[in-house]
Amino acid sequence: MKKILLISDTHSYIDERIIHYAKNVDQVWHAGDIGDINVMDSLKEVSNVKAVHGNIDNNIIRKEYSENLRFKCEEVDVWITHIGGYPGRYSKKIKNIINDNPPDLFVCGHSHILKVINDKKLNLLHINPGAIGKQGFHKVRTMVRFEISKKEINNLEIIEFKK
Q1: What is the pLDDT of residues 71-91, one digit of tens each?
Q2: Which pTM was predicted?
Q3: Could you tell me the residue ranges of all domains in the chain?
């Protein structure tokens, strides 16, 4: 079993509350718009980290983190990207790929809007953790914590902080 903390859109912001949660999971996944490589360095000090770059990220971040990341966690096929869209309205860049070869779990960021959606057509779980950084229009900072055991995604929890 793996405990996962899913974050996105830090926009260069990290604080002790985020680090506290990161210390208590097996992996932290970041769905882009990191903003400053120091955010990732802070997370790497306390947890195993997987991430993609977002549209605001500079060349330093883009060299270290790709636009898309697809991997297995336990027996779950995971795909993380920053700009992914939503079920029925996936972005043009990934639409054909996701329709032809859907993952079990599709993660994206970008919108700053927390969403957890079962895509029944593609038989996948779509998660956008919202934004945990302070920049943007969102009023509440959010991240998602869950567990993966073999092929099951369980104990999904939304974590909220005031902006």
Answers
A1: 999 999 999 999 999 999 999
A2: 0.97
A3: 2-162
